[in-house]
């Protein structure tokens, strides 16, 4: 399944560039302003957001902050045609993955940054999935053992696992009941 990338930029040429650059490796959704970006973000679960810093009615950092309030591990790349050190520092403090200046001079380097951002998203999603699995587990499948005695214990656990009752475990002290 291809990753989903939201590109938010008021410049039509930049949107077309990303659409063509990522066409074979991602599902790309395009937005020209904050309102359209909000609508698309509410409808889809994006792996990455590429955001222009200066939009006609919004500030890219503020919009990314808004998106991250809904999805804290959202990976975002901020783009700007007006590079400013203070803006770059603010973006990094907000947790932006990367800060790119336009025009893009090295498209291979840009593709590499996007690839690394998607790897980070995959890691976040894997961690989230593993945590969800662990919190939903009963713990029975976590037991390790192949002896006849252990198989008997696991069978008994399965029998009582669905019951709303008290179970007494007996055994010698130190045996890991």
Structural overview:
This protein has 177 residues and is an alpha/beta fold. The chain has one domain (4-135): 3-Layer(aba) Sandwich (Rossmann fold). It contains six helices and five strands; from the N terminus they run βαβαβαβαβαα. The protein has a five-stranded parallel sheet, with helices on both faces. The longest helix is centred in the C-terminal third of the chain and has 30 residues, at 107-136. The protein is elongated.
The neighbouring-strand order within the major sheet is: 2-1-3-4-5
Strand content: 5-15%
- Helix/strand-derived category reads alpha/beta
How many beta-strand elements?
5
What tags apply to this protein structure?
177 residues; alpha/beta; Rossmann fold; five-stranded parallel sheet; 6 helices; 5 strands; 48% helix; elongated
Write the layout of secondary structure elements.
Layout: E1 4-8, H1 12-22, E2 27-31, H2 34-43, E3 48-52, H3 60-70, E4 76-80, H4 85-93, E5 98-101, H5 107-136, H6 148-161
Q: What's the short story on this structure?
A:
By secondary structure, this protein is an alpha/beta fold. The protein is built from 6 helices and 5 strands.
